[in-house]
Design goal:
Strand order of the largest sheet: 1-2
Largest sheet: 2 strands, antiparallel
Shape: globular
């Protein structure tokens, strides 16, 4: 499944079936996806809930999108760890995201919420 290919987005993915009886499945999924897609280990990083949104993809797949934020660990350098899923890694602020030609409104809304509620901007 591909949703919004070529658009500016955060790291994302699905919970693994094998993890269905695990505690903190959403946080575990977020940490796993960040490691798989951009090569950053968030094992010891506290995550803060930002929002959750339900939508249906263009392919008709129902999705619950849950967004977390957390500090980048010292020395960590995000990079394309999964070229099949990530075209490039950008480190930009909200103003730069707003000007990006491939930033969809839902990504911008989420970024603004992160900046307003978790970064104080």
């Amino acid at each position: 499944m591909s949703n919004a290919a070529g658009m500016l987005a955060g790291v994302g993915g699905k919970a693994e079936v094998e993890a269905r009886d695990r505690h903190d499945i959403l946080e575990e999924t977020a940490r796993r996806e960040v490691a798989e897609e951009v090569g950053v280990d968030l094992t010891s990083t506290p995550l803060s809930y930002v929002e959750s949104v339900f939508f249906v993809t263009d392919d008709g797949v129902p999705v619950i999108n849950v967004v977390f934020t957390g500090e980048l660990p010292p020395g960590a350098v995000p990079h394309v760890a999964s070229p099949e899923e990530v075209a490039e890694v950008l480190w930009i602020n909200a103003a730069e995201a707003a000007e990006h030609p491939n930033c969809p409104p839902w990504t911008m809304r989420c970024l603004l919420k992160v900046f307003e509620t978790h970064i104080g901007g």
